[in-house]
Write a structure and sequence with these properties.
heterotrimer; A: mainly alpha; 3 helical TM bundles of succinate and fumarate reductases; two-stranded antiparallel sheet; 2 strands; 4% strand; C: alpha+beta; Ubiquitin-like (UB roll); 2 domains; five-stranded mixed beta sheet; 13% strand; binds flavin-adenine dinucleotide; binds protoporphyrin IX containing FE; binds iron/sulfur cluster; binds FE2/S2 (inorganic) cluster
């Protein structure tokens, strides 16, 4: 095995891949969340639609988006591999165990939380990404330019109560995933220093709460508006 | 038998160098033709196994632990002495030598002790190179503390876990040799017997503690690094599995056992709290710097310590030894605690404890100062007893801690069986009748790193390379005898567990051959031990079989040896009509109750030969010659 | 105090084990292991096989004792099993006692496990290559006190395996991190640091321990309070080594 393959197949290397992809996804979440706040502009969706067009046509953004899809895929595949081997490391479970005494729920359930996120991502992509690219999205025009009216799709989707609820639940899962994952990713990269640990922990909490909250606010507001 | 200690001639300071030059060498290419068995992986064993393998010998190492790193050396707290004189306080090799000889109450060999002091400096260098994290000053230099029996700061330490860090250093060197294949490591394997071929030690018989399989291993020489025998007393500060079987069985094969009655009782241990007690925990000697030792003036006082007024307390050490007060040496402090308890003035539920009180120190220095000095010890005390020493006086009592006696060895560390060596606490060599604090670690590592690698060559150089086969009748017989012993134990259908008999033995030895002894008590004790031996072989309750993991069997096999060794300790104590160091015979004391040595008649090593079951052991004397130090009476008044 | 014990009994490595119930009446001053001693004396008296468990120093330093008590390694207090006392339990309580469980810690008998995987990890590189006698004067190597203290903190590990037992992935990262750290921090250990990190991690993986999810259960249960910083340091050492060492 080459040294690269060797590294990537070690427990540490696998975890490195998960951390790098995970933290990359975190940066994407920031962009995605801030872009989506354009929904709240109150301009009938113009800014939002212009933004989506930019995001789907700019060559640089397009490249980055492929990196993003790969990241999700690699993150999922590597976490699946890790989980598989981690379970093999303890073939016989304890008859009685009390893990709550020594660790947080989120940290022990990243796989479960991640699975919710995966389901969410699939449905989310189907509703918006797939529709945007291949579906029949109505066309609007601003100042003579034609735009796909993704804003309308969003409004329609979020006005269904079950869709909004699913969205909010997923964001709760994201929150738990991030509160542990953000800090954990840095630890995996080797960042652990008495001076900066308190800052990292606070950042992790802030990130894990603010980003999902922004995302969750969209279905909630849109649903309420639709009533 | 004439005991030849093989101490080289010449001035003290040149003996070791001269000897190193005069011993025969094994050429580097030939070293790989020799196999050496090392029994035990404590400081002595691990350092020896690693060093010999580095030289090129093939080593097979054995331990009954699941890992070499768990040997009892790991528990040593205080530190390790070395004559580095880093503190510029007047230390020197000669001073360390002198302190150790005097501390041992002039019952050790000058030559050995001087060599120990000499190599002590190399030990620290070696350990630092291995990465042992000794305590440091802010500038990055090594830090020292002082210990009992010395007026200089020469003790190197790693917090309260010096033994652990030193053992991990030796263990890492050993692990490196295991990885190279030069050491073959057998864990959870107990050595049951030593095998002699043509009078030379050529192998061992082992029992695999998991499968019960009994096997032979052959070699050109055998090193016993199996630790001390403090567990004869049942309760001691030793780990529970420490035992005397390897040395005792070597003794029965012909190795003389020296000074078995020299045992060290440490004054500050957490007292026994009930019949169920399995082990005693040491509290560092350093506590006596600030703690005051006292008992109530009247016996039967059941008030809490803090409710007893000053006028009704007896600070007995300060009263009897105004000059040294609470800081008298270990043996003196221990004995006095026993006296006041014998008078019925002991404290606590069992009445076998005295107070070690920090109330005055806390009042004087403040809580913070005391907690900075002793915080971790106070915590440990609280964990075990559930009492808070900041609020109420600690209760302490002496406990068995170390055994100075052991297999007799010459200057080369060879026992009276050619090719059988004893290192570390397993031998008797360097501490005389009393060991100073922080010098057992020093001795174990000196033996393993810096003595045996030289001296073993002298023996091997004239040995033929031929290996002996374990199919030889000597091995077959030894295996058969081990099988026989295991079967014999397992077929006794009595009532008492090995643990119970061990407890009874411990009580006899503690009461009659412990802190103070007298001829009458010893004679009585010998009878009792004999009848306990009978009871053991007739009334033992055993469970399980021989071919599985069976702790009861392991214990029984060890207790069988304790019973015989215990008797020899009594015999030795009875023979030595003097008091010295840890051996206090009530008949031999000064007017004010201090130990009274008899240098004219007892300045010798008592080395005992085994003469067969039920027969009296035979005494051989090695006279101790003092050419450099003047023998004086110790006084701490 | 009267207690109900539910103890894992397993004849040997290949047998199936099960929890067996015992009633005991013990003194609350006893240590946990003395409580088991007492049970064993009773069992021997009845001619039954005593419960096999590992122990030695009973001072919390040798690392031999290792029981999973009421769902936690070493029980409800952050200490070693041998330093746990019965006063931390309540009258009438049921106590479940199991061995530490991990693929790399196979059960030997009852509550005894085989932790030789730890030794093999150390053999892979947990040392400084220095032959006896070749050392220079100890004070020629200056080590600032904070560094020496930090190295000591890592070196304080007693190889009990509680970290593995507590971890949901049965990961040995805390142990291995501590072993790598104690040398990586010291000037003496720098020469071999890259190879050491690579080899020890490779051995850890070969033994079948799980990966780290940074859950922190290991450190929370570690009787010697080994910190997660050791794992982060191991990661740095390992990735740094992989990127820059000449080992192909
Ligand atoms: C609580 C305590 C604190 C101490 N503190 C200090 C201190 O601060 N400073 C100091 O200098 N000294 C101290 N000592 C003394 C010192 O620790 C010991 O004397 C020393 O460590 C003994 O080392 P050793 O290598 O001879 O034996 P041990 O470390 O006891 O090793 C014995 C080895 O032999 C093996 N073994 C024994 N029998 C067999 C057999 N039949 N088959 C296979 N293997 C066998 C064991 O498995 C073990 O590996 C202390 C002792 C105690 C009890
Ligand atoms: C937006 C989406 C996601 C983000 C931002 C994200 C982020 C992260 C981060 C930062 C980590 C920590 C890495 C580390 O500990 O080193 C992590 C861990 C993890 N992620 Fe994700 N993740 C996302 C989606 C997913 C998905 C879809 C899954 C799975 C199906 C998943 C499964 C996991 C698992 C199981 C872990 C823990 C791995 C371990 O430590 O053993 N994640 N994630
Ligand atoms: S890191 Fe802690 S829990 Fe793990 S083996 Fe070392 S001492 Fe035990
Ligand atoms: S028995 Fe040694 S640590 Fe518990």
């Amino acid at each position: 095995m080459s040294w690269v393959a060797q590294t990537l197949n070690s427990t540490l290397g696998r975890k490195l891949v998960v951390a790098l992809t995970g933290l990359f996804l975190c940066t994407f979440l920031i962009v995605h969340a801030s872009g989506n706040t354009l929904l709240f502009r109150g301009d009938g969706g113009q800014a939002f639609n212009e933004y989506t067009k930019f995001m789907t046509h700019n060559p640089f953004i397009k490249t980055v988006s492929y990196l993003l899809y790969t990241s999700i895929l690699v993150h999922v595949v590597y976490t699946a591999i890790l989980t598989f081997y981690n379970q093999k490391a303890r073939p016989v479970e304890y008859a009685y165990s009390k893990p709550s005494a020594n660790s947080t729920w989120a940290s022990r359930n990243m796989g479960f939380l991640g699975t919710i996120l995966l389901i969410f991502i699939v449905i989310h992509m189907k509703t918006f990404w797939y529709e945007m690219h291949f579906g029949n999205v109505p066309i609007v025009s601003y100042e003579g330019q034609e735009y796909k009216d993704l804003y309308a799709v969003v409004k329609w989707a979020f006005s269904q109560w079950w869709y909004a609820v699913f969205y909010v639940i997923s964001m709760v899962a994201l929150s738990f995933h991030l509160v542990h994952g953000f800090r954990s990713g840095f630890q995996t990269l080797g960042a652990n220093h008495p001076k900066y640990n308190p800052l990292l922990s606070k950042l992790s909490w802030a990130f894990g709460i603010i980003i999902p909250a922004v995302f969750a606010s969209m279905p909630v507001v849109v649903f309420l508006q639709s009533l | 038998m004439k005991l030849d200690s093989k101490i080289p001639e010449g001035p003290l300071a040149e003996k070791w160098n001269k000897h190193k030059f005069s011993v025969k060498l094994v050429n580097p290419a030939n070293k790989r033709k020799y196999d050496i068995i090392v029994v035990g992986t404590g400081l002595a064993g691990a350092s020896a196994a690693a060093s010999l393998a580095e030289l090129g010998y093939n080593v097979e190492a054995f331990t009954y632990h699941d890992s070499p790193r768990r040997a009892h050396s790991i528990a040593a707290q205080g530190g390790i002495n070395a004559a580095k004189n880093y503190q510029n306080d007047g230390d020197s090799i000669y001073r360390l030598f002198y302190d150790t000889i005097k501390g041992g109450d002039y019952r050790a060999r000058e030559g050995n002790v001087f060599r120990l002091a000499e190599v002590s400096v190399n030990i620290i260098d070696q350990c630092v190179a291995q990465g042992v994290p000794f305590a440091r000053e802010y500038g990055g230099l090594l830090s020292n503390r002082s210990f009992g029996g010395a007026q200089v700061s020469r003790t190197f330490y790693a917090r309260g876990q010096t033994g652990q860090q030193l053992l991990l250093g030796a263990y890492s060197s050993l692990s490196r040799q295991v990885a190279t294949g030069k050491v073959k490591m057998y864990t959870r394997t107990e050595v049951m017997d030593i095998v002699l071929v043509d009078g030379q030690a050529r192998g061992v018989v082992t029992r695999n503690l998991i499968t019960g399989k009994i096997e032979s291993h052959a070699a050109h020489a055998v090193l016993l690094c199996t630790g001390g025998y403090g567990n004869v007393f049942y309760l001691s500060t030793n780990a529970l599995n420490c035992n005397a079987s390897a040395t005792w069985r070597a003794h029965k094969k012909g190795a003389l056992f020296a000074n078995p009655c020299f045992t060290q009782i440490h004054p500050t241990c957490i007292p026994v709290s009930g019949e169920y007690q399995s082990k005693l925990t040491l509290m560092s000697e350093s506590l006596r710097n600030d703690g005051r030792v006292w008992v109530p003036k009247k016996g039967g006082d059941t008030r809490r310590a803090e409710d007893i007024p000053e006028a009704e307390r007896d600070y007995f050490l300060e009263r009897r030894y105004p000059a040294f007060g609470n800081l008298v040496p270990r043996d003196v402090a221990s004995r006095n605690a026993k006296y006041v308890c014998d008078e019925g003035r002991g404290v606590g539920d069992t009445k076998l404890a005295v107070y070690l009180d920090f109330a005055d120190a806390i009042r004087r220095d403040g809580l913070n100062v005391i907690s900075a000095k002793y915080g971790n010890l106070f915590e440990m005390y609280e964990k075990i007893t559930g009492e808070d020493p900041y609020k109420t006086a600690m209760r302490i009592y002496p406990a068995v801690h170390y055994t100075m006696g052991g297999l007799w060895v010459d200057y080369n560390l060879m026992t009276t069986i050619p090719g059988l060596y004893a290192l570390g606490e397993a031998n008797f060599s360097d501490h005389g009748a009393n060991r100073l604090g922080a010098s057992a670690l020093m001795q174990g590592l000196a033996d393993g790193y810096f003595v045996i690698p030289y001296t073993i060559g002298d023996y091997l150089a004239v040995m033929p390379w031929d290996k002996v086969s374990t199919d030889r009748p000597e091995f077959r017989e030894a295996e058969a005898s081990v099988h026989g012993m295991v079967n014999r134990l397992l077929t006794i259908k009595g009532e008492k567990s090995p643990n119970q008999i061990h407890k009874e033995l411990g009580k006899i030895i503690w009461d009659y051959c412990g802190m103070s002894r007298n001829a009458e008590g010893l004679k009585d004790a010998r009878q009792r031990v004999r009848s306990l031996q009978d009871e053991f072989w007739n009334n033992l309750k055993m469970v399980g079989t021989g071919d599985e993991l069976n702790h009861t069997l392991e214990k029984a096999s060890r207790v069988a040896d304790y019973l015989e060794l215990g008797e020899l300790m009594i015999v030795d104590a009875l023979n030595r009509d003097e008091s010295c160091g840890g051996h206090f015979r009530e008949e031999f004391q000064t007017e004010d109750g201090e130990a009274l040595r008899d240098d004219a008649n007892y300045a010798y090593v008592a080395a005992w030969a085994y003469k067969g079951a039920g027969k009296d052991s035979e005494l051989h004397k090695e006279d101790l010659v003092f050419e450099n130090v003047k023998l004086t009476q110790r006084s701490y008044k | 105090m009267k207690l109900k014990l539910r103890i894992w009994r397993q004849k040997d490595a290949n047998s199936k084990g099960k929890l067996v119930d015992y009633d005991v009446d013990v003194n609350s001053h006893m240590s946990f292991l003395e409580m088991l001693d007492e049970l064993n004396e009773q069992l021997v008296e009845k001619g039954e096989e005593p419960v096999a468990f590992d122990h030695d120093c009973r001072e919390g330093i040798c690392g031999t004792c290792n029981l999973y008590i009421n769902g936690r390694p070493h029980g409800p207090v952050r200490t070693t099993t041998c330093q746990l006392h019965m006063r931390h339990f309540n009258e009438g309580e049921t106590i479940v006692i199991e061995p530490f469980r991990a693929k790399s810690f196979p059960i030997v008998k009852d509550l005894i496990i085989d932790r030789s995987s730890f030794d093999r990890i150390v053999q892979a590189g947990g040392y400084i290559s220095v032959n006896t006698g070749s050392a220079r004067d100890a004070n020629e190597t200056l080590i600032p006190k904070p560094i020496a203290d930090e190295a000591f903190n890592s070196a304080a590990c007693i190889a009990c395996g509680a970290c593995v037992a507590a971890c949901k992935n049965a990961s040995a990262m805390l142990f291995v991190g501590a072993q790598i750290s104690k040398f990586a921090l010291l000037p003496q250990g720098k020469a071999e640091r890259k190879t050491r990190a690579e080899k020890m991690v490779a051995q850890m993986d070969a033994e079948g321990f799980g990966a780290c999810s940074n859950i922190g259960a290991c450190s929370a249960e570690c009787p010697k309070e080994i910190s997660m910083a050791n794992i982060a340091r191991m990661n740095r050492e390992y990735f740094g080594a992989k990127l820059t060492s000449t080992n192909l």
